[in-house]
Write a structure and sequence with these properties.
The chain is α/β, with parallel strands linked by helices. It has two domains: 2-78, no CATH class; 97-195 and 228-361, SGNH hydrolase (Rossmann fold, 3-Layer(aba) Sandwich), CATH 3.40.50. It is 40% helix and 11% strand. It has helices spanning 26-31, 52-78, 97-106, 147-159, 191-194, 198-206, 211-222, 239-247, 249-256, 271-286, 300-303, 310-321, 332-335, 349-361; strands spanning 2-8, 11-18, 114-117, 137-139, 166-171, 228-230, 235-237, 290-295, 326-327. It has a five-stranded parallel sheet with strand order 4-3-5-8-9, covered by helices on one side. A two-stranded antiparallel sheet has the order 1-2. Strands 6-7 form a two-stranded antiparallel sheet. A hairpin with a 4-residue loop joins strand 6 (228-230) and strand 7. It starts with a strand and ends in an 11-residue tail after the last helix.
Length: 372
């Protein structure tokens, strides 16, 4: 049994399940009884009925094939990660940013030459806010994004002929404290980034266990759209969160901004993550890419979830690597104002606009200050 698919551009046209069933003579079956245990005594004559265990084996194989076909059909038709582009459903939170953003940029190579990088906190930035003097930004931030993610994507874009004139990088806490990084289907890189074949990539997505993700995508499409993507800019938005806040501000505050009763977490910083940041900055310098870096304005509730000196150490270690990095985490008038946040982790567009205004005033605050 094997699979075959046809692809046009970024769209999968057809997927075939091909099953080869060899026909054995009775004598051949007798010679292979040790190779295929469980059916060695199987009589294939028409007049003799199958034995119970033979019938059970046959039913098990048939059901397995049917389940695979059903799973592949759902994954292809619903397309929860939006990699097949097989429908017109709205993108949901299950959409694979790493695939779709790179795919979009590869199909619009001349449109962008500057990029916003980082994790989901960067998703609320409209990249057009930073456009200037023939410099056109795209929001290339991704869910759970770190320096390694950014470097891998930038290297591919450069290899494919996309000029990288400027970048703005927002730094988060979690990439520097994670011991292990899991890669569910929604966080898988574009096949050209990892070097796997398109066929291998698509087959894995066809048979990935994604029933819950498919349900979420359908719920987002036919119900209230709490989360939206715009791949023409790379930006995402939480419109439903704003609507929920407007309907009942007190209830919203109680739900999303209540103080945690759990003790603060003690974390261990991962040295290899800081090495990854150094590699990214070195690559940007070597390519004469104007680079601005800032530390996010973490809400005080989020900062309180960690041991007292966690963010102080984070700031110190980042400054050793990138002294020019702008630190918004110490702006208490921002971080103590819950109106600036959707919840404890992600800030709203209103705070993103404030960051943009500060960065625009710091025009010369570059890691790489001048192109040669």
């Amino acid at each position: 049994m094997h699979f075959s698919l046809t692809r046009t551009g970024n769209k999968i046209d057809q997927v075939y399940l091909i099953i080869n069933i060899p026909v054995f003579s009775q004598s051949h079956c007798n010679t292979t009884k040790k190779v295929v245990p469980g059916i060695q005594n199987m009589n294939l004559t028409k007049n003799e009925p199958l034995k119970p265990h033979q019938r059970w084996n046959q039913q098990l194989v048939s059901m397995s094939i049917i389940l695979l076909i059903v799973l592949a059909s759902i994954n292809y038709l619903v397309d929860p990660y939006q990699v097949f582009h097989s429908n017109t459903f709205y993108p949901s939170a299950t959409s694979n940013e790493r695939f779709n953003k790179v795919e979009y940029l590869l199909n619009h190579k001349k449109q962008y030459n500057a990029f916003l990088l980082g994790s989901s906190r960067m998703g609320v930035f409209d990249p057009r806010w930073f456009n200037h003097d023939h410099t056109h930004y795209y929001n290339l931030s991704v869910f759970s994004g770190d320096a390694k993610d950014s470097l891998q994507m930038l290297m591919l874009l450069k290899e494919k002929g996309i000029h990288i004139k400027e970048v703005i990088l927002g730094l988060d806490l979690f990439p520097f404290i994670e011991k292990h990084r899991t890669r569910p289907a929604s966080l898988q890189h574009h096949p050209l980034v990892t070097g796997v074949s398109y066929a291998n990539y698509y087959v894995k997505h066809l048979f990935n266990s994604s029933l819950y993700q498919s349900y979420l995508k359908l719920e987002q499409h036919y119900g209230q759209r709490s989360f939206t993507f715009n791949y023409t800019t790379g930006q995402w938005s939480l419109n439903a969160m704003d609507d929920l806040r407007d309907k009942d501000p007190a209830k919203y505050h109680q739900r999303f901004f209540s103080e945690s009763s759990r003790p603060p977490m003690t974390v261990n910083f991962q040295e290899r993550r800081f090495i990854g940041l150094k590699r990214l900055i070195t690559w940007l310098k070597n390519n004469s890419t104007k680079t601005r870096i800032f530390i996010h304005p973490f809400s005080h509730l989020h900062q309180n979830r960690f041991a007292k000196d966690t963010f102080k150490e984070l700031r110190q270690r980042i400054k050793l690597i990138a002294p020019e990095a702008y630190d918004f985490s110490v702006r208490l008038n921002w971080t103590y104002n819950t109106a600036n946040y959707y919840e404890k982790k992600h800030y709203r567009v209103r705070l993103a606009r404030k960051i943009v205004l500060v960065l625009k005033r710091q025009k010369n605050q570059y890691i790489v200050k001048q192109r040669p």
